[in-house]
What we know:
This protein is α+β, with helices and mostly antiparallel strands. Helices cover 47% and strands 26% of the residues. The chain has two domains: 5-34, no CATH class; 48-117, no CATH class. The longest helix is centred in the last third of the chain and has 32 residues, at 86-117. The N and C termini lie far apart (68 Å).
Amino acid sequence: MIPVDVPVHVAVHVPVHGHPRATWQAGVVHEQNEPAPRSGEDAAKSGPSPTLIALIVIGIVAVIFILQNGERSRTDFLMFDFSAPLWITILLAIAAGVLLDRLFTVWWRRRHRANDRD
């Protein structure tokens, strides 16, 4: 298929600043049958995202951590006494910290909202 550059007339209604009902019209858009080639920054963004790379690295580090900390440890906390692999004990401690952080954040925001209303 041969790409064809076809002009398409488009009416664009844009509100004029300060006059909510006044608008202006303009525009001729060129529509092509094939996408335009990527250039500069768009071409550089075609690889894996930094977030995906970070998740893969964190996953690999987590697997190494679990494999290196498989021995059992005894934990005593208040009335709880249990024995579990060290990585599970550390994971539970991290989860408790995250939960406390979330609870504190909710409390802090509600407190400031109540103070803002007064």
